[in-house]
Design brief:
By secondary structure, the chain is of the alpha/beta class. The chain has one domain (38-82, 98-239): Rossmann fold, CATH 3.40.50.10900. The protein is built from 4 helices and 10 strands; from the N terminus they run ββαβββαββαββαβ. The chain has helices at residues 58-67, 124-136, 191-202, 221-233, and strands spanning 35-39, 49-56, 74-81, 101-107, 110-114, 138-148, 163-169, 207-214, 218-219, 251-252. The strands form 2 sheets. An 8-stranded mixed beta sheet has the order 1-3-4-5-2-6-8-7, sandwiched between helices. Helix 2 (124-136) crosses helix 3. The longest helix has 13 residues, at 124-136. GO terms for molecular function: proteasome binding.
């Protein structure tokens, strides 16, 4: 890899957990959720593709919804979390949206996986295994994840722009897009995109992981600037097919970047 891959780090703040953490009986509160695959196009499992784009995070999902997909975009598969009645006993401070992760076909050579907000660090490996048949049939993988600028660790923070990008690449990547900066230590990656990047490194498959850091969650030109830059330098700008009107820009996402 182009930078350090270390151990998986779980959230340390107790606000991420529930009252069952104090229980001595682990089986009392450990409820494993499972993903269900709904295959919509079996032919896609027999076709070879040049690129798979994976998006995670509210800003990246908003960019995809506005510029890359529309009502005419073909759906190949859906990955949905099964509803478990036992989870009624769990307390979630901010429940995730129960929407499916959807695999789209942008054109004959490109796939797009839009992940659900419900896919967290505990379910990332499940989704990786479910998507594996398509990952194996794609020559290149490009992942996008968006986080708050508060998650970016740097000694000098005063000069950071309101939105910027950092990237990681696997060893198999030969052509690195120009003008982009690598994610530096001690920063680290987590979640589904990290799971996919780790698998690609082990299987010697080219994968570029892009991290978008922003100081707010508004879907506007400032927040989207790093994404437009990446699409242009990676020669995939032709995938931007929508031209949303101004009324759809500048709106705030339903998740705040305020922390307890």
């Amino acid at each position: 890899m182009a930078t350090f891959f270390g151990e998986v780090i779980l959230p340390t703040s107790r606000v991420f957990f529930d009252d069952y953490d104090d229980s001595d009986n682990e089986e009392e509160y450990q409820v494993e959720r499972t993903l269900e695959l709904k295959l919509l196009d079996e032919k896609s499992l027999k076709h070879e593709f040049d690129l798979l784009i994976i998006v995670e995070g509210i800003v990246c999902r908003g960019f995809v919804d506005l510029y890359l997909i529309n009502a005419n975009t073909s759906r190949l598969a859906e990955f949905r979390l099964l509803v478990d009645d036992k989870r009624d006993n769990l307390v979630e401070i901010t429940p995730h949206k129960e929407e499916a992760s959807v695999l789209y076909k942008l054109n004959d050579k490109t796939l797009l996986l839009r992940t659900s907000p419900a896919i967290d660090i505990f379910i990332s490996n499940q989704l990786t295994l479910k998507v594996m048949p398509w990952i194996e049939r794609c020559k290149n993988i490009m992942t996008f994840n968006s986080k708050s600028v508060c998650d970016y660790r740097s000694e000098i923070r005063e000069d950071l722009p309101p939105a910027f990008e950092r990237m990681l690449v696997t060893s198999a990547v030969k052509n690195i897009p120009p003008g982009l900066r690598f994610l530096d230590q001690p920063n680290f990656i987590t979640g589904f995109c990290a799971s996919v990047a780790g698998w690609c490194e082990c299987m010697d498959k080219p994968c570029i992981l892009h991290m978008i850091f922003t100081d707010n969650s508004s879907l506007d030109s400032i927040t989207f600037a790093p994404l437009f830059k990446i699409f242009e330098t990676a020669n995939v700008k032709h995938l931007i097919v929508n031209k949303p009107d101004s009324s759809k820009l500048g709106i705030s996402c339903d998740q705040s970047y305020m922390y307890m």
